[in-house]
Every structure is written in C-alpha cells, then in structure tokens.
Amino acid sequence: MDPSKQETNQKKASKPMAKKETQEFQFVVYNTMTQQKEVFKPKIPGKVRMYVCGVTAYDFSHLGHARAAVSFDVLYRYLKHLGYEVTYVRNFTDVDDKIIRRANETGEDPISLSDRYCKEYNIDMSDLQCLSPTHEPRVSDHMEQIKDMITQIINKDFGYVVDGDVFFAVDKFPNYGKLSGQKLENNRAGERVAVDSRKRNPSDFALWKAAKPGEPSWDSPWGPGRPGWHIECSAMSAHYLSFKFDIHGGGLDLIFPHHENEIAQSCAACEESDVSYWMHNGHVTNNNEKMSKSLGNFFTIRQITERYHPLALRYFLINAHYRSPLNYSVVQLEGASDAVFYIYQTLKDCQDALLQLQEEMPNDGKPARISPDAKECISKLRNEFQVKMSDDLSTSLILTGAFLEALKLVNNLLTMLKKKQQKQQRLLVIKSLKEIENEVTKVLDVLGLQPPWSYNEVLLQLKEKALTRAGLVEDDVIRLINERAEVRRNKDFLKSDQMRAHLQAKGIALMDVGTETIWRPCVPVQQDSEIVPSEGQKVPPKPESA
C-alpha cells in the first residue's frame, strides 16, 4: 500500500468526534487483571499511552498475528475517534532463540533475517489497513535500556548472577501470579522457561543469557550475552511510556508467563510501576485448536490475502468479539468477502448517483433537510455504533443491525431516484443519500474498513480475487456469458440454468439485467473446508487430531 495513503488513513482516523457525543457514553473495557469490565479513565486526561506486544520476527506472520494487530488497531482508531491523543507502542522481537535457530538453518545473520521479516510484517499490516504505531522499537536497538533495567533489578535484590546468566528470583516477588492466577510451579519448561539446576527456584526466569558460540551477543556488566525474552517489553514500555501507563495488550497466550513476568520485572525495577488496563485478544483456532507455528496448523497472512482481499480478511477478523476465540473457516472468509463487496458496491452506486446529480444539490450552506426515514436511520446507526463500541469494542454487533439497514435504505433511495419525482421530493432523496453515506463511511473509518482506493478499484480487486479462487480469468467468464446468451436465444433454459449454477459453485454469480448479463463474486454453493494452494505453494497440514 502506498505510504501516502496510509498517512491519509491515519489523519482520517484521528478526527475526533463531537464533544457532545463523547459525553453520552462511557467507554468500558475488560481488564484481565480484575477480570471485569471497567470504565476507561486514562492516567492523564485527554492522553492515552498504550503498549502492545508485537511479533518475534523470524517468518511470515500468521492469522493469529493478524488478529492481534487488527484488534488493537481498532482500539487505537477508536481512542483517536474519541478525541484522545494516543501514544501507541508495538515492539518487534529481533533477538530470540527462534530467530537464531532459523538464521542457522538459512545461513543468514540473525539480525538481518529478523529485519527482513519485520519489513514483511509491516507490508501485511499496511494491507490490513492497520495504522502505524507511534513507535515500533526493536530489541537490538534498546540494549542499554534493557541492561539498565536488569541492573536496577539486581541492585534491589530481585535478580542474581550465575556464570554470566542473570535470573529473576520469583520468590522475592510475593505478588507473582496476580495477573494470571497461575502458581509458580506452572512457570515450566517449554514456555521459554529453561530447566537449569543453577536456579534458586525452578520458576526463576532469565533476564540475561550468557553468550554462546555462533550467537549474537552484546557486552554487559555480567559478561557478553543477550536479553531474555520478557525483559525487553518491560524495558521498552518504560522507555517510551514510563513505568506508569494506561493499556498493555497482547494475545491471550501472553498472559502467562510473559505478561506475568513483565509485571514482576517492572515492579522490581520501580515500585510505582503500574498499568491500568491489561487487554488480551482471543486465539484464532483451526478445527478448534489454537493456530500456531509450533503446531504447524497455521496459515500465513500472505496465504490468505493471495486468495482473499485484505479488507475481507479484516472484516472476518472483526466479525467476532476480540476476546472470543475465532475459528478459521473458509466459509466465513467467503461470507466476509461477499459482505464487503456488498458494502462497497452500495457505496459506489451511491457515490456515482450523487456525482451525476451534483448540479441538483444546492450549495446554500443551510443544513440538509432529509427524509424522516433517513433521519431515523442515521440516528439509529450512530447510537448503535456508540453503544456497541463503547462496550468493550463489540465490533461484531456493529456490522449487522442498523449498519445493514442503512445500506438497504441507500439502495431503496437509489431505486427511488430512477423514478419520476417532484423537484423537492427528489432533492430530499439526494440529501438523504448524502447524509447516510457520510454516516456509514464514519463507521467504516473507525473499523478500518474504509478503503484507501476508490470503490471501483476495490470492487475490481475483489472480483480479481474471486477469479483466482475460481481458477478462472475474466475472459473465461465473458466467454461463458456469451455461450449462455446463445443457449438462451435457443430457449434451452435448462442448460442456461446449469451454466449459471456451474459458475455459482465456483463463486461467480451471473445476473441478467435487461438484455445484458453481468457478473459479481458470490459465496460458492459448495465450498472446500480448507484453502486450496496456488501452484507451487505449500499449505501447512491440518493437525492429526482433526
């Protein structure tokens, strides 16, 4: 995506809503720490400081990463919509065991390999309409901050050194487990907590790892080495946001041990350390099992967006509440693709009609008088949007109800414009269309579904993806349309219906409009349960338990 368009989107998303509207609803979020919904109140009025754990960059990012990014992008956009000045920090882990292993396999420098995948991740984020965070720090650029925090932890007797390694002494932190409710013995090996007989307690975790041959290392007071996983986020969040900030987010799997260890480290380094709200998004599952690289049951974002438009993927991701599990389903992806096509086709038709009727619209500066139906529609959409978004970002409930009713009314008004009307009635319809369109695009903008291209462009892109999934090119469809037209002229309507059904099974719908036949994407009548790979593309297998 063009960076200039990304910048334009950020400016759009930062436009605050009217003060009157912000006073009508209290924004409520679910706080993992208290396990309940709470009214959101930033530490500094008018300003929000937010840190979200990013990816460990050693491969293309998968659907689970997309869900986390989109979930917190919606939060970021909504906070800006409410008029807050938001400082959003999302890190990259570019120093890690997994990166080193992958670099050894490929013969690359670990930092260079990670840099490449950081860039690939940002391409995916741009495709998914995720606004760029205020800061995107990398571990390799913040070694001094990390070493300083480890020094503070040691000086306060929460850390100890053994042969160049530094461990956090969990016994010294009585509140360990307060976020997750987990006990110390659950901080086990296999979750980046290594078994090591030198530890005072098996649950102690590494703050600094002594250098090993063939691994990147940095000088430190304890000898050359590199940071443990958990310390990076404590150090970088404190550096950019201070020890006290408003929101810390990430995937559900990060609650323990990562976020639990972050709390211990940060409080050990600074007694006043405090995060007001801990927010976590649910897993993406495949056959009801968590999708992850380690299980080999994941799909990369690229694998999805080769066949489905990124905006369709975004719609799919926000069509469930961010905290609930989201089961991967091609049927749902097809439904999401069909839904966004309908949205953009309706808005294109509206935009085209308004452009043609521009000369009929007075430019007298007076408030637009609209129909009672349009007024009720706008009021209902605005109210429903505010109620649902303010209730812990209930995005899945926004894309139905009043939103769909607004699109339906747009189509009804467009139909009315095709009929003969008195001038005043016609003007009322035109103004009503314009006002409804404005309200619908405001909702899409906050949800990150307002495309950076023209509606015509995005519709063409959606059609191209549908052709890819069908294994066709547009010339194939045109040829079949022409063949079907000949069949219809011969009054062989049974064969005509069979030809239509054949294309519909592939996700291509034919529509007879007068003497012309046009096509659009549709949900296939019969759909496989998994993505069919492109030629030469390897798709990870389903788990054996499936």
From TrEMBL:
Enzyme class: ligase
Family matches, as Pfam families: tRNA-synt_1e
Key words, A-Z: Aminoacyl-tRNA synthetase, ATP-binding, Ligase, Metal-binding, Nucleotide-binding, Protein biosynthesis, Zinc
InterPro entries: Cys-tRNA-ligase (IPR015803), Cys-tRNA/MSH_ligase (IPR024909), Rossmann-like_a/b/a_fold (IPR014729), tRNA-synt_1_cat_dom (IPR032678), tRNAsynth_Ia_anticodon-bd (IPR009080)
Database matches in PANTHER family: CYSTEINE--TRNA LIGASE 1, CYTOPLASMIC-RELATED (PTHR10890:SF26), CYSTEINYL-TRNA SYNTHETASE (PTHR10890)
UniProt keyword Ligase, yes or no: yes
Name under which the protein is recorded: cysteine--tRNA ligase
Species annotation: Gossypium hirsutum (Upland cotton)
Cofactor annotation: Zn(2+)
NCBIfam families tied to this protein: cysS
EC nos: 6.1.1.16
Coiled coil spans: none
Sequence ranges assigned to domain tRNA synthetases class I catalytic in this UniProt record: 41-336
GO molecular function: ligase activity
Metal-binding among keywords: yes
